[in-house]
Amino acid sequence: MQFPPGPPLMHSRRVLVTMAMAAWLTACASVEHVGWRLVTTPRPALMQTGGQRLEGVVNLRPDRTGDMILSGTGSIASCAGSLRLTSVTGGAMDMRCSDGAMFAMQFVMVNEVRGYAFGLHGEATAALTFGMDAPEAQAYLSRATPPASP
Prior knowledge:
- By secondary structure, the protein is α+β, with helices and mostly antiparallel strands.
- Helices cover about 25% and strands about 40% of the residues.
- The protein folds into two domains: about 1-40; about 40-145, Quinohemoprotein amine dehydrogenase alpha subunit, domain 2 (Lipocalin).
- The chain is built from two helices and eight strands.
- Residues about 30-35 have low confidence and may be disordered.
């Protein structure tokens, strides 16, 4: 890159300005990442599938997306996924579990930080709640409990 003729001091300023702008852009990317972490709303989550309960957290972001991670002590050690709102009060979740199950779930927001979701994987039904305490969540989670054997 060649600079037009001018005093040597002018070239130094251009180099310094270019370096300062590069540093500023790098800092902005870092601040954006930290900013998302600061405005993310973590909510407790419960999931019921195949007679097993998993617990974890759902992180809701202001850009109408989020992610979740849950863990259990049974045959399913963990599940993780992402969500996106596709309407004012609901959206879609993609959940992948350590046993190989993948759930495409639909969720409904009860308010800005609480909601519930249902999905299927083969014959397995999954129910998930977030932002609710256990008694309130149980009403939604019971839909994924397998029926008792006669």
